[in-house]
Specification:
heterodimer; A: four-stranded antiparallel β-sheet; B: mainly beta; six-stranded mixed β-sheet; five-stranded antiparallel β-sheet
Chain lengths: 118, 112
Amino acid sequence: DVKVTQSSRYLVKRTGEKVFLECVQDMDHENMFWYRQDPGLGLRLIYFSYDVKMKEKGDIPEGYSVSREKKERFSLILESASTNQTSMYLCASSRTPGNVGSYNSPLHFGNGTRLTVT
Amino acid sequence: GENVEQHPSTLSVQEGDSAVIKCTYSDSASNYFPWYKQELGKRPQLIIDIRSNVGEKKDQRIAVTLNKTAKHFSLHITETQPEDSAVYFCAASLGGNYQLIWGAGTKLIIKP
């Protein structure tokens, strides 16, 4: 069974702090994603990566950066946390290289990190 | 930009009745349409998906239908049970690439 592990379940940070959210997957998946989930807005893609050291902007990349130095690890970085970044952050991975639309390649999500910025 | 509209935002049905959730997408190049279920406090999990070359797909009590002409797809749950209570998200692929465009979610409540 695929396991996607996010380092923290709950995190409280102060405005202006640099925040690191870590995600590790154990199934050798090529694709990894960071989403934020807010009530009434569904899942919004922040960044994704389809290979080591590769990254692509999603719908809402402003205020975030990512790092993928190893295939199994995808980190989300908030350079200077702000209160409007208070949210649930979900990491996900998928197997098929190049196309998340493959029938046999669902997204596997982590349990999420609820970040509060005060 | 491209978007996916999902309705209703909340759906309350009697246990044993059917539930239908509808989504409309804007990108005519979308070719993949998954549905995810997120139980309270848990991660979203794929429950069913459909590709654009198929009009309907069933898996036990769950079915998904796709109307490419109208650009909408629906999730049908029959004989609802308490464990069906969750938030359901539809999504559509952005063209043929990695990204999914997500609906806002439907909170399904099963009344005993």
